[in-house]
Amino acid sequence: MCWLLHRLPVLPIVAALGACASAGAPPLPAVRIGFLVDGASTQAECIERLGAPQRRFAAADGGVVFTYRLGEDGAGLHPAPASASWFDYARRRSLVLVFDARGTLARHALVAVRSG
Predict the structure, then answer these.
(1) Which domains does the chain possess?
(2) Least CB-packed of 2, 83, 85, 116 within 10 Å?
């Protein structure tokens, strides 16, 4: 009985922490990608609207490739900045943006990511 009395104040804290961990963080607001226009959109515009890309790669001819992880639900596409939050979504997408050396969007694609 004495052991139980010493442990009781800890139990509500542990239960509360467990509830927080299982609930997950709320999704970031949905983003719209309809503004993307090959040959017209700029790197600066994309960063302003989508935030910093999760990955950047050098592209041919001095260009750059941005990738964004997006989770899809009934409310739209949500940025998933951390790997763990990306797996909260049943449908996951990668948005790939390829810019030329001038910083203009050359082409883009929204790619489905398969599970498993």
Answers:
(1) 26-113 (3.30.1450)
(2) 116
